[in-house]
Amino acid sequence: MTQEAYRAAARYWEEKDAHGIRMEPDALHRAMEAYIAANNTCALATGAGDFIRCTPIEYSYHDGCFWMFSEGGKKFVGLEKNPRVCLAIFDHYTGFGSLHGMQVTGRAELVEPFSARYCAHAEYKKIPLAALKKLPAPMHLICVRPDCIEYLCSDFKEQGYSTRQTWVPER
């Protein structure tokens, strides 16, 4: 593949989206949050330099962020050097007419163990603090604040919209 062919492939969605029919932001946000709530597992990609890692992990979503408890693992190699992450949520593929998936780019933050935010999330997950304190090593809490969410949903076409929608939170 030539360099120009790579660039053309990389521009595919930008060019297609330029002519797409956009949903009203509030309606897109509601649809997006419904999809996020209907799932609980994502693939979290971290990386720095030549190191990359993609980890399946359970998440919760509230306060506009994705929250993940983790015992540890190689994802922390990337998180230490680069807070930029990408996570993906997707359904089992059954055909072009039923595509549902989401790619989220954002910034990860490690929440200090047993801080107010950490304890609030443990309560949200109904995990007793006493159980967390008994662990031999602290359970880490990763919070990902989205910068951009790209949502692919075949159902949007039936509603008269482009199947791929992009949402950027107001800051």
Secondary structure layout plus pairing:
Elements: H1 3-17, H2 25-37, E1 41-48, E2 51-58, E3 60-62, E4 65-70, H3 75-81, E5 84-90, E6 100-111, H4 116-124, H5 129-134, E7 140-153, H6 155-158, E8 164-167
Antiparallel strand pairs: 1-2, 1-5, 3-4, 4-7, 5-6, 6-7, 7-8
List keywords for this structure.
globular; alpha+beta; Pnp Oxidase, Chain A; eight-stranded antiparallel β-sheet; 171 residues; single chain; 6 helices
Quick recap:
The chain has 171 residues and is an alpha+beta fold.
Q: Roughly how much helix do the residues carry, as a percent range?
A: 25-40%
CATH architecture: Roll
Give me the CATH fold name.
Answer: Pnp Oxidase, Chain A
Alpha carbon gyration radius:
18 Å
Which CATH top level class fits? Mainly Beta
CATH superfamily: Electron Transport, Fmn-binding Protein, Chain A
Biggest β-sheet strands, sense, barrel:
8 strands, antiparallel
Number of domains: 1
Tell me the number of strands: 8
Beta strand %? 35-45%
Give the averaged pLDDT, no decimals. Answer: 94
Q: What's the total helix number?
A: 6
Describe the structure.
The protein has helices spanning 3-17, 25-37, 75-81, 116-124, 129-134, 155-158; strands spanning 41-48, 51-58, 60-62, 65-70, 84-90, 100-111, 140-153, 164-167. It is an alpha+beta fold and 171 residues long. The protein has one domain: Pnp Oxidase, Chain A (Roll), CATH 2.30.110. It is globular and about 55 Å long. 18% of the residues are buried. The model has no long low-confidence stretch (mean pLDDT 94).
